[in-house]
Design a protein that fits this description.
Blueprint (H helix, E strand, L loop, with lengths): L1 E8 L4 E4 L1 E7 L5 E5 L1 E3 L5 E3 L1 E5 L1 H20 L6 H25 L1 E5 L2 H9 L6 E3 L2 E11 L2 H5 L6 E4 L2 E7 L2 H5 L2 E6 L3 H9 L11 H8 L7 E3 L4 E4 L4 E12 L5 E13 L5 E5 H19 L10 E6 L3 E8 L1 H4 L9 E3 L5 E3 L11 E4 L12 H9 L2 E4 L5 E4 L3 E6 L8 E2 L2 H5 L5 H18 L3 H7 L3 E5 L5 E5 L7 H8 L7 H19 L4 E2 L2 E6 L2 H8 L12 E3 L1 H4 L6 E5 L9 E5 L13 E4 L5 H4 L9 E6 L3 H12 L4 E6 L17 H12 L3 H13 L7 H17 L1 H4 L7 H6 L1 E6 L2 E6 L2 E2 L7 H17 L8 E2 L4 H13 L27 H23 L12 H21 L3 H5 L1 H13 L2 H4 L6 H14 L7 H25 L19 E3 L1 H9 L5 H19 L5 E3 L6 E2 H8 ...
Parallel strand pairs: 1-10, 7-11, 15-23, 16-37, 18-20, 31-35, 32-34, 40-41, 43-44
Antiparallel strand pairs: 1-8, 2-7, 3-4, 5-6, 9-10, 10-13, 11-12, 12-13, 14-26, 16-17, 18-23, 19-20, 19-26, 21-22, 24-25, 27-30, 28-29, 31-36, 32-35, 33-34, 33-36, 38-39, 42-47, 43-46, 45-46
Length: about 1100
Amino acid sequence: MNYRMTKLKLSEFKIETETTGKVIQLEDNKKVMETLYIENKKGNKVPKLIYKWNTDIKVFNSLYKTIEKMKEDSKFDKLEADKKEQLKIQFKNMISKCKDKIENSNKVIVRDTELIRIIKALNLKDNSTDENGYTYIKDLICVAVSVPMYKQIEKDGEIEVDHVRYKRILASSGNVRNKKVIFINEKLYDNAMTILLCGLSPDMEHEQISKYNAYIGLVNSDTIQVSTPNIVVIDDFKKTINETFDLVIKDKEGKFDVKPNEKRDFEFMPFDGAGLVDITRAEIWSKELNTVLKQETGKNKVNYIPSSFQFRAIVGIKGNVYTCDFKECLKNLADEEKYITDVWDKKHNIFDDEGNLLIDVILTKSQFKFQKKYSSFGKWKTEFDKEVELKDLDGNEIKYKRTFNIAKWGNKKNKEKALLSYQPIQSLELTDEQIEILCKPTVDIIKSISTDVNEFLKYRGLIEESIDELGKVNYKDTDMDRVPKYYEALKNNKDLFYDSYIQKKVQLDIDKFKNNAMKGMVFVDGQFQTMSPDIVAFFEYATRQEVVGVVPKNNIYSNYWRNKENVTAVDIIRFPHVANEHIYASVVQDEIKEFEYIQDGIIMSIEDSSLEKLGNGDEDGDRILTIPNIGEHNKIIVDNAKEQQTNTIYFINEYVPPKKEETKIIRINEIDKLIECDANGMEASIGKVINKISILWSLPRDKEGKRDKYIKIMSVIGALTIDYVKTGVLEQIPQEIEEFLQFEKIVKGKKVIEKYKKPIFLKVKYKKQGRDEKRINKNHELFEDKKTEELFSDVDCTMNRLYHHVEKELNNIKLDKSEGDFDFTSLLKDNLNVRNATYPLVLKKIEELKKESDDLTQENSIDIENYTYDSDRRVEQYDKYKYFYRYCKNELASINKETTRNKDKLIDYLIYAFYCDKEFALKHEAKDLLWNVFGTELNKRINKKYYGDKEFIELKEERNKLLLEKKEKVKANSKKVKINDIDTLEDKGKKKIKFYKQNTFKKIDELDLTPQAKKVLKVLIMLDLLFKEYKKDLLIGQSSKKTITRATISKFTGINGKIIDEYLKELMKKDLIKLETKSDKITLKCIINFEVSSTGNTVDIKDSDSIFKHMKKQPCKK
């Protein structure tokens, strides 16, 4: 089930001083509210501050000027009573719409969590409002924080939103990484904590508060409730192996060093994060999950028994359990040995006297985060199982039963192709020939999808290729949940490709595919599966046997790869891939019965350090990529991974931080300490570490081996940075590495220290920087200063060479756009009459909805290269559109009785509007509203012919007329210019300038300039005069929102935009203009050095249209 909740930015709150609520009188007899004082950390009394959000004030600020202007224009005070009342109603509607818009823009869709279920139990009446099929959770608020502001929240952890107090309740590891905190209605806080703590003391001490934060926050995971299993918790198994490692040591002084090829004993936990679930319980869970999901989607989503389940339970119980048959696994164990001793040293029989299971889930201590806080398993179980008796806000008795929850589960089937990324490729040294072989399948796919609609749809996942017994290719439908409805329709009717809207969508996807390929996202015949434990070894440990397992050293077991012909080995990759962490592993070929149910899993050996090498991975649900040693392009990765295989990095921390005077014990109810811990975790930046590692990989190997040494150290720092939110210890990048990433160069006879730049392939990832580099260098060419700016480094490294190879191969590939038009009448269902009372209402409503859609797009627009926003922002954006389109469907259906009762007629009206209506279709070519609101219905229609020949001809003629007008409109729009804050003003708000055009232009025509330069000068002079009137500088930049652009000058003059700089140079050389580079190195300030005439006939300049008018018939030829 999905919900909506409010998400606000702390930066948009207002800080106010708290009061006691009492009125006091000052010495001057002025009455004020008494300030509330608190003690700060130094023991001084200071005013208590509170962050406040008030929607009404934001509505007021948004509409005040507009309403006041409407009053002024209408002479409100002098209006007759009835007209004044009409205007008041209009104001009221404006305020209501504005408030709805603000509130909606600050709401996000969230999935079901136990925290939400707790809130609903505690205060159902305020958390059950339906909003277009989503339940609004009022008593929880997600706040996106800026760290400096968040640190200033007072120690009670409270904020105020629309006069309601909310208190910080949790910030999970994911929340902290994404700089978010969850606040709860402070009246519910104590009751919620009673449930969350599961019998633990509300002022409990915790040895590591960052871990407490992470574990208590698990209750906010997206989950589905299932039946509680019969659990036993065993101690963690620790195994020692002897292997050759590359040691990364942090010594007692805090300095890092590397000792390669050291033979060492290494202790690790092979089952960290892992447990087991019996097949009978797994079958029950799968049915329970499927029942819930079928109610939501109408589809059987879990009609199989998953290989594993990721679970969550209060308090701090998490991990993965792997499916197996307990009876099968224990069949050779003597009956008297069929018991398990738990971590509290209590004995539990696995079977009863009749051989029925008493235990169907075995957990390890690593999965039970607060194990030390309970004296026995029974103590936790009693608290967990009992109904918590509380009172709601109205004093009514309520009960809450804690639940066992599933967050994720193993897939029924995995895709047989996977995309690599630059990280595992950059850590290998590949030749040009090997790069070409590796990329060839991807390049071929991109070429084929650009010319063949069927191939494109296959790429999108709509249809997959299969081979029958005769070797012929056939196609079959696949799951379409994650593809747009218009692509589903395109599969059913290829003529839809003639629609220019569809062609643009296809082109965007192909461009995205190209860009991804250039940054290393190339296809391999690999699979992502769950990293899984050796179940045999697990049972050996749980039942006190010698632990040997059945998966040999440097091997893996996989039911998928074992059954693939000729696959004998794989390369294992886990992300993030920092150092060279490729693992070449052989595939066990013999069937192992105990692993029968692990169809989506790579079972690891307990005899080697693979888990440690894979970024200190554990088995709590981590997904790893495996690539087979068959297929020419796959072998490039696998063979090189084998040849260039490195030792596992083993981190030894000898550093002991200086002791502080007194380490104060932190209790979990000290909110200020929790906030401090949150803020510290938010300051860690894994992106900064990853980028520096990419720079290191791009550099050539040095004789001293420093590059490789520093990569190993940085891999440790990366792992510590990721874990910072749990450990509370932030590791800084050593200064010697920062210095290694710098170099000296001579500039004007002086030594200058510069930093190595990111490798050029990252230009695809950081698009804005790539565009900036191009623009800055364009300005250098303009000034002829013989300078170039490099924001990226084109050094000789594997990924840069791959980038250039793919770019060269794909450079000239264009989408093969077919000529013609889509016969939209195939979508219509009934005889259409738009000359009635309903159609104008529909048209008015979709105009309003289109405006809301444009506003939403503007709000959600983020450059794809901007990686500073939180990782789930894209999901939030998708969910906002999902909600918006559901809202649109309800709004359209409720226009009048006809649209409510006859959905088919409503859809016909929309189709006509988007394809034929002259006023609407010419303005709105994008049909997102049509396809996203009624995509399912349109797919049912697209292959059926409802229309007769006569109506078809009439509508076709109407459509053809519209297309001709559309071409003219496109042509006209290509010449239009819009200058913000000038052209966007109403006519009466525009300032008029008297310009002595005749004499000024005459003086310019007499100058020794090319005709083109004269035209450019005339335009710049008029623009300069216009900008000065508005007290603005004339700026030439890249954004038409804040400046004019070279394209602006091109449109005014009719000169090709690519050669505008030639004439700017000419004007600079003649000292007629001066261009100064602004601090961004992109924007140019234009200063006119030409004296405008002050005699003769004048004309008015007030906007772009007037400039166009005065530039008409200006000569451009010599």
